[in-house]
Amino acid sequence: MKKLLVICIGLVMAGAVMAQGIAGSAHDFSGDTWNSTGQICITCHTPHNADTTVSGAPLWNHQVTTATFTLYSSTTLDANDLGQPDGVSKLCLSCHDGTVGLEAFGGVNTVTDPITGTALLGTDLANDHPVSFTYNTSLATTDGELYDPSTVNSGLGSTIDADMLYSGKMECSSCHDVHNTPGIAKLLVKSNAASALCLTCHNK
Ligand code: HEC
Ligand code: HEC
Ligand code: HEC
Ligand code: HEC
Fold first, then answer.
1. From residue 51, how far is each of 54, 57, 92, 106, 117 by CA, in Å?
2. Eight-state DSSP code of residue 65
């Protein structure tokens, strides 16, 4: 009995017991009042009549944000093509900026149930890690304290570029797995224990 208790406390402290996959994750909306379909994928994807306005969007079924965002800026930022969020990040912000209703999928465009709480990023991204800019060998060289994404391993199987970048760009999905495939807290692509996620790219 005592032994079992010790094991249990050990597991809780390690924080390692997380369910993998989208079912039961923060992105499983099958039981939410604003989703009467009882399905999981449908709030974001559809097999037919997908929205193709965002380039590269995978069979998209959620209304896309039209907001103009305040961008991150700093005197030390070297990236020179930081612009309005595009690609995958624009898809995330189509719920996380709070201007689009969660229920706005499958042709619905009401704003009855916008996102609330800590998951609400809003349209001011000045206080968020920058996204939607090119991260390549040249940026790594200019910065001096970034790993070369085309050669350095991400720890996820291949290079930073292959595993974490989208058409060579940093996006929300560089750090997050929208489907919770690895089952790491806050839908992260890899554990950030001892800042391992940050130290994948930043040579500090
Ligand atoms: C909360 C929104 C959301 C839900 C729910 C969701 N997805 Fe996705 N999915 C995305 C986004 C955003 C992308 C593109 C970005 C990425 O891959 O990170 C994507 C990409 C994909 C892709 C192409 C890239 C890849 O990962 O293979 C497939 C296939 C996919 N989703 C299938 C599914 C299926 C099947 C379900 C339901 C079991 C599902 N998704 C549920 C948002 C979602
Ligand atoms: C269909 C709307 C929708 C889309 C699209 C969407 N999210 Fe979410 N996401 C939510 C909601 C709602 C929550 C809060 C769920 C809760 O509080 O239980 C959430 C929660 C999260 C969380 C917190 C998870 C946790 O365990 O606390 C992260 C991280 C996240 N989303 C990232 C993303 C990223 C990255 C994308 C794009 C690749 C994305 N989301 C796309 C609706 C969405
Ligand atoms: C450089 C990596 C990185 C990028 C890029 C990134 N995030 Fe995150 N995000 C994190 C980490 C790490 C956490 C967990 C922070 C914590 O636990 O305190 C997090 C937490 C979150 C949460 C949960 C907040 C909470 O307190 O519950 C949401 C929602 C979220 N991110 C959405 C996004 C969206 C949307 C984007 C793109 C606009 C994005 N993230 C881009 C690393 C990132
Ligand atoms: C997938 C790669 C990647 C990951 C993971 C990542 N970053 Fe970054 N980060 C970058 C790149 C590239 C820049 C742009 C640097 C530049 O242009 O000067 C950046 C910019 C920043 C900046 C702004 C630098 C400035 O000069 O204004 C800070 C601070 C930062 N990251 C901290 C973090 C932290 C903290 C984490 C972990 C939660 C993290 N990053 C995870 C790639 C990454």
1. 8, 8, 14, 9, 27
2. P
Successive 10-residue mean pLDDT values, the chain, 204 residues: 45 57 98 98 97 94 98 97 97 98 97 98 98 98 98 98 98 98 98 98 98
Instruction: Return the residue whose CA atom lies nearest to atom 43 of ligand 1.
Output: 44
Sign of CA dihedral 146, 149, 150, 156: positive
Residue owning tokens 């489907």: 179
Report CA(202)–ligand 4 centroid distance (Å): 7
Residue with tokens 């916008």: 114
Question: At a CB cut-off of 8 Å and minimum separation 6, what does 204 contact?
Answer: 145, 198
In whole angstroms, what is the distance from residue 148 CA to residue 135 CA? 9
Q: How far apart are CA 195 and CA 19, in angstroms?
A: 22
* pTM metric for this prediction: 0.95
Ligand nearest to the CA of 85: 3
> Atom 42, ligand 1: which residue's CA is nearest?
44
Q: Answer yes or no: is the C-beta of 148 below 6 A from any ligand 4 atom.
A: no
Q: Which stretch of DSSP H or E encloses residue 201? A: helix 198-201
φ, ψ at 89 (rounded to 5°): -60, -35
The size of the chain, in residues, is: 204
CB 189 within 8 A of CB 175: yes
Query: Looking at this protein, which amino acid is placed at residue 34?
Result: W
Q: Which-ligand-closest: CA of 185?
A: 2
